Amino acid sequence: MTLVKWTPVISRPVSHMMDDMETWMDQIFRRNTIIPGEDKTWTPAFSVSENDKEFVISADLPGMEKKDVEISVEENVLTISGERKSSLEDNSKHYSEIFFGKFSRSFTLPENVKENEIQATFKNGALTLNLPKAEPIKPVVNKIAIK
């Protein structure tokens, strides 16, 4: 048996109490209970970073393959969608904290992204998109001679 140090609620930060409240609400409304035939959605974790040359969007998609993911750009909006299928039998009831189902996430792209040069890689359940930046347009300065 593992001993766990007891921490009184008073000394815990408010953010931890909010996490506990969210967990309790999930349990009350049975968010994690898988009901056969019920269409579920989930939101995978995404990370967005930027450097001088590009934006990088990463997503954790455990248990998925690249054929399960679709990426598109339309009218300056990047959309990543897909579906993680359950390995459970249709006639079983099951409690799980592993989410499955369809997901879709959209990002409005900045004007300086080269949409036709976006590259995506998928390895070991991790999706990485590299969005190269366009070179900044330098203003043309025309000197006017004084007569």
What structural keywords apply?
147 residues, mainly beta, Immunoglobulin-like, three-stranded antiparallel sheet, 1 helix, 9 strands, elongated
Structure commentary:
The protein is mainly beta. The chain has a domain at 39-86 and 100-135: Sandwich (Immunoglobulin-like), CATH 2.60.40.790. The protein has one helix and nine strands. The strands form three sheets. It has a four-stranded antiparallel β-sheet with strand order 2-3-9-8, with no helix packed on it. Strands 4-5-7 form a three-stranded antiparallel β-sheet, with no helix packed on it. It has a two-stranded antiparallel sheet with strand order 1-6. Strand 8 (119-123) and strand 9 (126-132) form a beta hairpin. The longest helix is centred in the N-terminal third of the chain and has 15 residues, at 14-28.
Topology:
Blueprint (H helix, E strand, L loop, with lengths): L13 H15 L4 E2 L11 E5 L3 E7 L8 E6 L2 E8 L9 E2 L5 E8 L10 E5 L2 E7 L15
Antiparallel strand pairs: 1-6, 2-3, 3-9, 4-5, 5-7, 8-9
